[in-house]
Amino acid sequence: MVQMLLCHDFYLTSKLFPRKGDAGDQIGKALNALAEEEFRLLGEYVREWNTKPKSCHIAQFVLSRVLRLPPTKILEARGMAEIFEGLIPHTQRHFNRLVGLETSTCLLDFTLTQMLVIEPEGNEGKLEYKDAKLSNVADC
């Protein structure tokens, strides 16, 4: 149950923070080259970084790369289960915070669109109508 929740949270967080480029490939190669003790130490750093809002994005990025490694690599390192369990509460908090921000952004977009302050995406041809409507309001 905990593993399913952990995978679900990390999957959703990685979708919110997509990365482009080949930096991930280089990080994956570096992670594969780590010894068991170094890998556990990295896990401890990720757990520590994940507790702070300023560094949680880095922690989630590294964690997404760790979870792409072969499961045997992760299971070889002792203490990784405890590290992953320590990541769950903070990851859930960060994810809930991001969902709240996304909801607020959608609400703000909707409000500004209804106020005719911004133009909705895909309505480039209706700009003249909005301007005409605004100028009619200004004439009153």
UniProtKB/TrEMBL annotation:
GO terms for biological process: rRNA processing. GO terms for cellular component: small-subunit processome. Residues 23-115 form the U3 small nucleolar RNA-associated protein 13 C-terminal domain. It holds the Pfam family Utp13. It comes from the Eukaryota. This is U3 small nucleolar RNA-associated protein 13 C-terminal domain-containing protein.
